[in-house]
Design a protein that fits this description.
alpha/beta, 3 domains, 17 helices, single chain, Diaminopimelate Epimerase, Chain A, domain 1, inorganic pyrophosphatase (n-terminal core), Udp-n-acetylmuramoylalanyl-d-glutamate--2,6- Diaminopimelate Ligase, Chain: A, domain 1, six-stranded mixed beta sheet, 552 residues
């Protein structure tokens, strides 16, 4: 199943958020069930949008997504082949003798509590360690004997611990006197004895009260006449020969004895390239992946042979430089739904593009609902209406078209909204007060960067319901605008403050003497402040004027 993100532009406005929400809903209705569409946003909600979604009730704004670069989670694996911490090494080895294609096996505790990853490397280290240096000491768990590893049964479960550390002594092939010398040499490290039905050897083991005795080749009963009651350890009857019993006894050791302490862990939002390099530089075949403190799965070197791309649908923008989500150049763009000028980047495959010169992207999405005969609920009608009314500034913007008007009329009925003007004014009144808010936050909330005719410039815009308090904050915003210009490496920076009630704007700008004196706007008192009566649209009114003066 493919997960596809529907995302608007950076510093999202109402139209961008509403478009992502409504189009993801539509795609989940009309697309094949093997695809799931998620509305997301790549910037903070402005105060107007946040308040409007609260008013809509029951509608959750799209969640924030930092970027769409490929993360390690997209290649994280899970497998049914797992072992528990107390399981014998025999179980682990069995996976590698089966059809399992994974080079690592997760170790769990209590069913689903992650404890580690094991691979053939840890098994090899275990085998090498027991065959080098001194006689190895094994950690035995009696419950791992039957029926997990050794075919047989207990003749006696002693009162000693069900788990113990001990070396292994094989006594069947030695003369009794030699056997005794070897047993005495292990004083302080009592072994587990593997022996056939040898009465003298068994008596000596009982005398020394070693932790356990494994009798081999016993198919029915023990013939040795010994006092089992005096023995405090455990006695296991193996139906297998001594060599096979010895081999499997070593594999009865619990897998936790093989585990590496404090291995490297990856977070699920770790970038694909970073995770690949971490694994490549490590000594491990695989690494666990965690998200929010919970185990998500694991990755092996094979997981990084191919890089999957995040699938994205772009709404309310088409130029990646105009504020697309971070990492969009690494993603696979499937569709573009927009109402701005075209400047889309090249794509590897043909994609669906629906761009129309309308006042709002939500108008286009409304038309798609109608085209596909998908019911628009009251709640969805209000979401779409919010986007259109906001972007067309209550149908007053020069970008407004007849289709925006007709869409609004239909949505007013479907959303049971009696008065569009009251709906819009209530929405815009929730906007932040420029005098009270952080200037940098407000400047960047809806700031678009353009590079035209060798000049890099940016235009921000904010809708207010009054300009009467402009003098209280204009100097602060002009100062901050200058710093924003330098921070983004621009030649020119502007901030359009639009009074949606009186339908006019004031433009604040940094100095660019060669061009600003050509502007067809009246300069107000002081530097960097211009009156723009009747100007509501950055795209259709202000931007063309800026391009005109740059061309001259």
């Amino acid at each position: 199943m493919a997960e596809i993100f529907v995302c608007g532009h950076r510093n999202p406005d109402m139209d961008s958020i509403c478009a992502a929400y409504s189009y993801a809903f539509l795609k989940n209705k009309i697309d094949p069930p093997n695809n799931t569409f998620y509305p997301v946003r790549c910037g903070n909600l402005n105060d107007t949008t946040k308040a409007q979604f609260d008013r809509l009730g029951g509608v959750t704004p799209p969640p924030f997504i930092k970027d769409v670069r490929t993360k390690v989670l997209s290649v994280t694996r899970n497998t049914e082949a797992v072992v528990q911490v107390g399981d014998p090494v025999y179980n682990l080895v069995s996976f590698y003798g089966s059809s399992s294609k994974s080079s690592v096996v997760p170790v769990m505790e209590g069913g689903d509590q992650y404890r580690g990853l094991l691979s053939v490397d840890e098994v090899s280290s275990f085998v090498l360690k027991e065959n080098s240096g001194e006689r190895p000491i094994y950690h035995f768990v009696l419950d791992n004997f039957p029926p997990k590893v050794l075919k047989g049964s207990f003749l006696k479960r002693g009162g000693k611990s069900a788990t113990f550390d001990a070396p292994i002594m094989v006594g069947g092939a030695m003369r009794y006197i030699i056997f005794c010398k070897h047993m005495e040499a292990l004083e302080g490290r009592p072994p587990i004895l593997v022996v056939g039905d040898r009465e003298d050897h068994i008596r000596k083991a009982i005398e020394l009260q070693i932790p356990a005795i494994v009798l081999t080749g016993i198919e029915d009963h023990v013939t040795s006449n010994v006092d089992w009651d005096s023995y405090q350890g455990s006695v296991y009857l193996s139906a297998l020969d001594t060599a096979e019993t010895l081999r499997l006894l070593r594999l009865s050791v619990p897998v936790k004895e093989l585990m590496v302490q404090d291995p490297i862990k990856l977070e699920d939002d770790c970038l694909f390239d970073v995770a690949r390099d971490i694994l490549a530089d490590s000594e491990y075949r695989g690494l666990p992946v965690f998200g929010g403190g919970k185990y998500k799965g694991f990755v092996t070197r094979r997981c990084f042979l191919d890089r999957p791309k995040t699938k994205v649908i772009m709404v309310d923008h088409n130029e990646t430089e105009q504020g697309g989500v971070s990492g969009i150049d690494e993603a696979e763009v499937l569709e573009i739904i927009d109402h701005h000028r075209l400047g889309a980047a090249k794509t590897r495959n043909p994609i669906f593009i629906y761009c129309e010169p309308l006042g709002s992207t939500c108008t286009i999405i409304y038309k798609l609902y109608v085209r596909h005969s998908i019911e628009i609920t009251q709640q969805m009608a209000r979401v779409l209406l919010s986007g259109i009314v906001s972007d067309t500034i209550m149908l007053k913007s020069p970008t407004t078209t007849f289709e925006d008007y007709t869409a609004v009329q239909d949505l007013l009925v479907l959303g049971d909204v009696p008065d569009m003007r009251k709906f819009g004014e209530t929405m815009f009144s929730s906007g932040a007060s420029l005098a009270k808010e952080d200037p940098r936050k407000m400047l960047e909330a809806d700031f678009k960067v353009y590079r035209e005719l060798g000049v890099a410039f940016g235009i921000g815009q904010c809708e207010v319901t009054t300009l009467s308090d402009l003098d209280e904050y204009k100097d602060t915003y002009l100062s901050e605008l200058e710093m924003l210009k330098m921070a983004q490496g621009l030649d020119w920076a502007m901030f359009l403050i639009t009074d949606v009630v009186r339908e006019n704007s004031v433009l604040l700008m940094t100095s660019l003497p060669i061009t600003e004196r050509k502007l067809a706007y009246e300069k107000l008192g002081g530097e960097g402040k211009y009156s723009l009566p009747g100007v509501l649209s950055r795209k259709k009114q202000l931007l063309p004027e800026i391009l005109r003066v740059l061309e001259e």
